[in-house]
Write a structure and sequence with these properties.
Layout (H helix, E strand, L loop, with lengths): L1 H17 L12 H9 L4 H9 L1 H22 L14 H24 L7 H16 L4 H10 L2 H20 L18 H27 L3
Helix pairs in contact: 2-3, 3-4, 4-8, 4-9, 5-6, 5-9, 6-9, 7-9, 8-9
């Protein structure tokens, strides 16, 4: 039996070496150009995520929300960490907060203009979460928790998820805003708004996870 497999392997190898590959017939128009034209914005990745594949993106946002709830649930019965260490030397604090400022500016840029340039809502949210993490390693947990509660970040996170789902459902039902002028800031229909909502959701969700792990696991 093994000789049959060996012979089949040799035949397949010879076939790959000798027989030419049949090149697929490529249409005159580019697939990327078609996607860009369909979405009315130059960022094809954002068009796919927040328009052509919006049904999947809804559940990606829901999964991220469930992951945050799971972190709260799994750590709820544990004792808070007794010792929480953070950077206290001035050079590290200055560099971390400078990096946080840059990451926050990048997050805002990607959230507002993510439909025009490389990036998008998820990338903007990650940049925002990075900024929050850099602030967390140089600040007291009580101060971070106080700001989180003062500005009702948990409520805004839930609101952003619900608004995203509602707008996405309306879009999937076939109701769309005008695309506007290609390359303009107000273009792409409802996609820029969905982009901003995803950025807010991911950034605030990252903040919640950071606070939970700092409280129950310590920072460093």
């Amino acid at each position: 039996m093994k000789w049959i497999y060996i012979a089949a392997g040799i035949a397949l190898f010879i076939k790959m070496l000798i027989l030419p590959n049949s090149a697929p017939v490529v249409p005159d128009f580019s697939i990327v150009e078609s996607i860009v034209k369909d979405g009315g914005m130059p960022n094809a990745v954002t068009v796919i995520i927040l328009r052509n594949r919006l049904y999947d993106t809804i559940f990606e946002v829901v999964v991220f929300t469930i992951a945050i709830m799971g972190a709260y649930f799994l750590l709820a019965n544990e004792k808070p960490s007794c010792a929480i260490y953070r950077f206290t030397d001035q050079p590290s604090i200055v560099l971390a907060r400078l990096g946080a400022t840059i990451a926050a500016l990048v997050s805002i840029e990607l959230a507002i203009r993510g439909h025009l340039s490389p990036g998008g809502g998820f990338a903007a949210g990650v940049a925002g979460g990075t900024a929050i993490g850099l602030i967390a390693i140089t600040s007291s947990p009580e101060w971070m928790q106080g700001i989180y509660q003062r500005y009702h970040a948990a409520t805004w996170e839930k609101v952003s998820v619900l608004v995203f789902i509602v707008l996405a459902a309306i879009t999937l039902a076939g109701v769309e805003l005008p695309h506007g002028e290609m390359g303009a800031l107000f273009s792409g229909g409802i996609v820029p708004l969905l982009n901003i909502l995803v950025a807010v959701k991911v950034a605030l969700g990252s903040w919640a996870v950071i606070l939970v792990f700092v409280r129950y696991r310590g920072l460093l």
